[in-house]
Design brief:
Length: 177
């Protein structure tokens, strides 16, 4: 299994890496962006007026816990029968592991009561904020517009939120891009 960043960081390469890993392993990807996009967009449009809001406290408190719980539990329920690559940012999950003094894979295993016989491998994709911004500009996605419009707030509030410092000690692999 692959667990990526627990951070809503676009343009890092999570989906590209997840797709590659799934092809190598001959398995499938469960992608957070495809898991329940209508639910996320409709709830956030109703709560904040922005269907692409994935960085506000409202999203983190109301929507993200259920989305991530569903994605993790679905992936780890399938994992004993069929290997799965989970493609998502996992900011709160990494923070939860750090608060419990556990490696991310151990935290996920404990959280879902996954048997020891099922392998869980966590991967942190590391990229600088400057390169992330450049990739977001190149991509030109509508969902990135609010982040780019107030880049400093996004950079300090999300990209430099401290998870980048925690992840190398908690994840099984770190890939610097």
């Amino acid at each position: 299994m692959r667990f990526g960043r627990d951070l809503r960081v676009p343009s890092v390469g999570k989906s590209t890496a997840a797709g590659y890993l799934a092809r190598v392993l001959g398995t499938s990807v469960l992608d957070k962006d495809r898991f329940a996009p209508l639910l996320e967009a409709s709830v956030m449009a109703r709560l904040t007026g922005d269907p692409y809001d994935r960085d506000s406290e409202v999203y983190r408190a109301v929507v993200a816990p259920g989305i991530y719980d569903g994605l993790i539990r679905t992936g780890l329920t399938l994992a004993p029968v069929f290997p799965v690559v989970l493609d998502a940012p996992f900011l709160s999950t990494i923070r939860d592991a750090a608060e419990r003094g556990m490696r991310l894979s151990e935290h996920l295993r404990t959280y879902t009561e996954l048997p020891e016989s099922v392998p869980v491998v966590t991967v942190w994709l590391d990229l600088t904020a400057t390169v992330i911004r450049s990739r977001m500009l190149e991509r030109g996605a509508e969902r990135d517009a609010p982040k780019l419009a107030d880049w400093e707030a996004y950079r300090t509030g999300v990209l430099d939120s401290g998870v980048r410092d925690l992840a190398p000690a908690l994840c099984d692999l770190v890939v610097t891009i």
